[in-house]
Design the sequence.
């Protein structure tokens, strides 16, 4: 195969992986930015999205339905969890969040096992998405191109939402100074609940998008959350642009690492995270705590 | 919180050891595993409870100690007690550079940095097939230098646990341990008094990793098997749950938390298939409703009766 074509395909693969990871990492960093919560359950929500997507597609026969059902389920769960558990903990130190979200991850994984069983699940893509296109005369799955597009669209919408809307303004204000934001008459509690629900919806959407590619399985959550943590820590917790950069870095490191140095690829991501955190404890684009 | 009376704790550990001669074999094995986890939780409490450094990577020293022990038992064929000690020391040595990098940070960054180191260990053992057996792990570890029998192994674990508890208790109540508490409560003031917070934290870090390495080595001897899963982040989460469930910063609490969680998992999994769900929900309730954990409850109950 032409080395340039091979390289191009790897770049596209890396971009599609980055796009998937971006969905989960963005929610994680939003949650951290606004409420200083490290959400260990975010991987489980991603997994829930994958299962809900598969279930919705099985029930309705429509892939679009799965992309609708998953974020709705994610948002509902996020809202319920924030209101019933997290909102009682904001006065406590951060380890309480670590623990309560770890509990949610545990419970959610088990709930999924009870509902859908221990076997991995996968569905067929609609014909129009299941095909291949030729990139520099080499075949490439259409679906991966769609993922890149979806990731890019999500980036654009979230960026516009944060920078150009009143809600985005409120989010940024609550992230920088919650007390002052509340003093100006804004309901910071509602902002937190909305952000948490939105972040969970994004993760679940990512899960539904990942389902045709990775299939929905019980290990999905605990594997993907680590990648998401790496991204968010490298980029800087709470930084939007950092999350974009981190997703690309990890997506490319994993894809190219797996292709060229398969033995070192897994360790490389963690070594990257350690290096960044040691040199810049706040991440590449973040502020130190 | 005031530390519990060490004599009482030692008595309880001795009782647990004696149980091995009465209990049926299966129950003895369970108790042994539970006590090893108690040691693991004790080691983490030094970091989380005493230095308030929330580590989310304690699977790192635990698995590292286990693998070092496995290597010694398989290759060098040395007695298990010696292997356990050497594993603990090796873990302490590796903890110096790791800790030096980790304790520069605090809070979430510390948690994530310790997690990254544990995951790096996972990646290394997972991929380095020739030495670590890769995803299959290393099986058939011999228990050399100990007379056969479950009750003997239980006694050995109890002995190590008692020694570890005395070490941890001695450290916490020592002048150095008081400085650790001072750094935890007010870093600026401790620094103004001439203490280097980073060096103080490093001491706790190394001691905690030493004990976790010992616990991991014991576990390798107990299970006679090591695998990369020992390094996985869910293990770190689990032991952190034990510490908080029991009551961080009390030494005894986390040990009780480990026993409680271990037996709860065991009993619930026998009762119902949805035990994981029940446990996750129960755990969320405990974190929200009882910030001081089991020890807080116990203290409140004893205090109420005393009055």
Sequence:
């Amino acid at each position: 195969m032409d080395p340039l074509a091979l390289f191009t395909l790897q770049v596209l693969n890396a971009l599609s992986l980055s796009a998937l990871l971006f969905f989960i990492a963005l929610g994680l960093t939003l949650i951290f930015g606004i409420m200083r919560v490290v959400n260990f359950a975010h991987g489980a929500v991603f997994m829930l999205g994958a299962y809900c997507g598969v279930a919705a597609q099985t029930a309705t026969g429509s892939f679009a339905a799965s992309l609708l059902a998953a974020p709705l389920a994610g948002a509902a769960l996020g809202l319920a969890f924030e209101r019933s558990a997290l909102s009682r903990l904001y006065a406590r130190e951060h380890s309480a969040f670590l623990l309560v979200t770890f509990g949610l991850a545990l419970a959610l994984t088990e709930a999924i096992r009870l509902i859908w069983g221990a076997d991995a699940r996968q569905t067929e893509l609609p014909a129009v998405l299941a095909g291949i296109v030729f990139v520099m005369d080499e075949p490439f799955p259409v679906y991966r191109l769609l993922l890149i597009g979806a990731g890019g669209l999500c980036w654009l919408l979230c960026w516009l939402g944060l920078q150009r809307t009143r809600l985005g303004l409120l989010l940024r204000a609550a992230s920088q100074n919650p007390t002052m934001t509340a003093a100006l008459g804004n309901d910071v509690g509602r902002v937190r609940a909305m952000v948490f629900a939105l972040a969970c919806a994004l993760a679940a959407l990512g899960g539904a998008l990942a389902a045709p590619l990775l299939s929905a399985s019980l290990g999905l959550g605990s594997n993907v959350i680590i990648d998401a943590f790496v991204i968010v820590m490298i980029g800087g917790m709470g930084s939007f642009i950092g999350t974009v950069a981190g997703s690309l870095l990890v997506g490319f490191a994993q894809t190219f690492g797996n292709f060229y140095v398969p033995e070192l690829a897994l360790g490389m991501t963690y070594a990257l995270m350690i290096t960044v955190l040691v040199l810049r404890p706040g991440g590449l684009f973040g502020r130190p705590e | 919180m005031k530390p519990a009376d060490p004599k009482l704790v030692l008595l309880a550990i001795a009782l647990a050891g004696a149980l091995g001669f009465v209990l049926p074999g299966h129950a003895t094995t369970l108790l042994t595993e539970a006590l090893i986890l108690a040691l693991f939780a004790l080691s983490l409490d030094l970091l989380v409870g005493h230095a308030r450094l929330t580590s989310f990577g304690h699977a790192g020293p635990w698995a590292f100690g286990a693998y070092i022990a496995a290597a010694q038992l398989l290759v060098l064929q040395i007695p298990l007690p010696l292997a356990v000690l050497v594993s603990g020391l090796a873990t302490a040595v590796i903890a110096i550079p790791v800790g030096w990098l980790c304790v520069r940070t605090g809070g979430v960054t510390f948690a994530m940095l310790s997690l990254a180191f544990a995951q790096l260990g996972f990646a290394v053992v997972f991929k380095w097939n020739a030495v670590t057996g890769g995803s299959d792990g290393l099986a058939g570890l011999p228990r050399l230098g100990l007379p056969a029998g479950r009750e003997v192994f239980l006694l050995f674990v109890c002995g190590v646990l008692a020694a570890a508890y005395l070490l941890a208790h001695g450290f916490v109540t020592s002048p150095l341990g008081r400085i650790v508490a001072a750094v935890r409560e007010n870093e600026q003031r401790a620094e103004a008094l001439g203490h280097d917070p980073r060096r103080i934290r490093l001491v706790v870090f190394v001691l905690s990793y030493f004990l976790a390495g010992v616990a991991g080595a014991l576990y390798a001897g107990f299970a006679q098997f090591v695998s990369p899963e020992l390094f996985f982040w869910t293990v770190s989460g689990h032991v952190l749950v034990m510490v908080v469930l029991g009551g961080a910063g009390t030494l005894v609490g986390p040990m009780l938390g480990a026993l409680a969680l271990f037996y709860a998992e065991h009993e619930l999994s026998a009762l119902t298939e949805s035990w994981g769900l029940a446990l996750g929900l129960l755990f969320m309730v405990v974190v929200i409703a009882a910030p001081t954990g089991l020890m807080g409850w116990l203290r409140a109950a004893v205090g109420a009766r005393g009055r």
In short: Chain B touches chain A through 45 residues (CB under 8 Å).
